[in-house]
Structure prediction request, 837 residues.
Amino acid sequence: MKNAIIKLVTFIGVFIISLIVISFYMNKGNTDMTAQMSGATLPTVAVKAGSADINLMRGYCTVMETAGMRESITPVGEQRQVDIVIHTHGQEIRQAAYEVRSIDGTRLIENTVLSGFEKSGSDLKASFRLKDLIEKGEEYSLIFILTLENDREVRYYTRVIQDEYNLEEKLDFVLQFSEATFDYEKLQEYTKYLESNSDGNNSTLAKVDIHSSAKQVAWGGLEVQKETETEVQVKEIAPQTASVVLTYLVSYLQNDKKVYAQVEEYYRVRYTTDRMYLLSYERTAQQLLEESSWSFDNDKINIGIADSDIEMVENDGGTVFAFSHAGALYSYNGADSKLAVLFTFLDENGDDERTWYNAHGFRILQVDETGNVTFAVYGYMNRGRHEGSCGVQVCYYSSMLNVVEELAYIPYTKSAGILEADMENLSYVNGKNDLYLMLDGSIYHIGLENKESDVVVRGLSEECYRVSEEGRVLVWQEGGQEFSSEKLVLMDLNSGKKDEIEAGAGNYIRPLGFMGDDLIYGVASKEDVTEDSLGYIIFPMYRIVIRDYEGTILKTYEPDGAYVTECSIEDNQISLERVVKTGSGFESTAGDQILYSDQMPAGKNYADTVVTENLQTIVQIVLKSQVDSKKVKILTPREVLFEGSREVALQQQDHPARYYVYGKTGVADILTSPAAAVRLAYENYGTVAAEDGSYVLKRDRLHTSNQIMAITGELAEDGESSLAVCLNAILQFEGLMRDSNYLLKAGKDVQEILEDNLEGRKVLNLQGCSLDMVLYYPDREKPVLAVLEDGNAVLITGFNEQNVVIMDPQTGTVYKKGMNDARAWFEENGNQFIAYW
Prediction:
């Protein structure tokens, strides 16, 4: 009885102390400890192109790695004239200068201080000519440097290229087409540019494209008003083609209430003296959440016109969940009917254009039972404590105190797009406030309490590791070798515990994926793993294993007479690609499936779509339980103020070469396989850039014809292989004399020989890429090596509209092969290509 009384008194004491602490934070005296996010302060810089402002640049308060700063490109003509406007937004500009650097940033070409500004309201305008130090047709980094009060330097990045690109004509077409989308009658002039067919989705205004109907492109009859000026970003440009992105804000009525949506349009156009061509068009719209009780209807939150793929994380009971949408992060507490706006860069009135810039994203890391949310904001910071920087800000929302506190900030010097692609791989926080992140091919552990960091594993390629769907379990190959690893390391990120999985004597092992938190991996015999002359590896797995993170084997798959080469996972089904052994190696056979009995739990709150009369298909969040909209409270948490810095600087680690694939509006993926990168870029009319910013591939219109005349017919004689002749021809073309036949007999493969001898060049194994993809290289005076199934080889040295030019050492001739016949021939031989640049 006495102990019970003591426990009761202790509980009451703790409760009273908690009330005092909460009151201390929540009363008026708290104004010195919390504050609203500070407003945007940095100027912006834009380039003038005729009457249009293009390539609006946001400022960076840190020096960025220029190779990845590819948000825009600014073409200049023969006179290298550049016209800019600085939107000062009331800031004093003490000095303005610019630098021209090589695209990788290592070579400074020009450094000039600007003068002679013309003042127009709060804007400053300047015109200048770049010095005659740049090569025509070559891209450079152009960096504007503004010195503000307190001698603070702010940098603004674009690329620059000198050539005649007919930019104004291309922009005129794009802007006129965009304006016509608001008027169905006016759009009739442009229907000839559309490719309306059954591939177009005419049921939603959230996304339309070149295949949609003209009516759908004209907003499906909805009365839409443009609310802001159009921002124009020139993403890529060539003499005939250009890729342009437009962004602006629109409004329309939903249930008699004016609502707003962010709109982004992508155009790829081709200019000729006769007419313009629209090669690709896509428009997306994201309705802004109306942060009021109006958005609630029984058991639903009305999102409106939007992408239905909304990131949501809920607590175990589903009473609280967080979700991100249209550049903002929210949490909803069903027990209290409270919607909290956890994070947004938009200012209170939404009238500062700098806050509309959407180069950030969110990762919801944890939602607990009391409604507290741990989350990460990553990308460019429009305003606030880290304005003008790129990085990862980890924050904690206290539901009880209704405040957001920064736990750590991790600065990043590559672009926001590259950071976003990395953040998709791994970001996880456990109950001990340990953060795990993957950046630049390395996995870091960061203590959010002590701000200390260490490297868990470094130098991973995308095929050497796997992460479970919720991020809790991580596996990687020890040694980082995809096809020659004898051990996997499985790590439970909740506990930090590691477990090693051995391949067994005479075997190699590969991670294939996760089903929930259960690992799927494959085992292959070392003697079955083979490598061809191009370095392509066949990894036939005789055993597939599913095990949980505690070590229990849940299922083993060992097909009789067949081997698994790849697998894909969807819902509770594992689809397997298989081969069988033949006298000459392996050949494909029928696939198979593994059905997994455990169903993945569905969320208690989820996003759904519904068809409406005026807005077509809209998105709603279906709630676990009904809510009285009159009782909904909208909360805007304040930021917790603190002294000092909570920055955690990560040391960059060595990693395999990475290729950045740029799609329609930014970084689509980061890959270590050049072949996979080239395929993805080609399919998306994109580009592939190496880490130094140089192009690996541009999906652009080739010349009508081109042939490398310096490469002539060479006959394979005296026991010399055709492969050796082709290698010698490449090396001779580059001014080198080597005995490739000797090197091949010494055990070197094709890639090794070229890499050892082509100093400063990058050699690309493009196996699996099509002929059309690899013609990019002979178009730029680089031969392509093609290896045939019988071990012979030829060089692709040119093309025209009907033919491919081939040098064949078996006949010692250079001849033309019909384009269609060549496509089929190379495909039958496995599309085994090696290129370089």
